Amino acid sequence: MNEKIVQTAGRAQLGNFAPEFAHYNDDVLFGENWNNPDIDLKTRCIVTMVALMSSGITDSSMVHHLENAKAHGVTRAEAAAIITHAAFYVGWPKGWAMFRLAKEVWKEDGEDGGKE
Fold this sequence. Notes:
The protein has helices spanning 9-14, 19-33, 41-55, 60-71, 76-90, 92-105. With 116 residues, the chain is an all-alpha fold.
């Protein structure tokens, strides 16, 4: 059985201020789109990582999606390969920004590989 994605962040953070946006976020984006069975969750997480990376999103929402990717089976090695591959297409600085976040998300999975 597939895990059902449930999101409440929209209502929790914007419910009184922007209830329609909260509805679209929680019920449509995450409720319907993320639960569409045509793409498995791991693949959906990878697509989301690359889409946000290409947009230059490097805030807490990207951290959430990296953690979500890890929770749905994206390994440290896969994350590094995905980010490296995408960096050639979306921009090297965006790759660097993603690696700064990804190193934190996967840090307990082994040495971070950097010398600081």
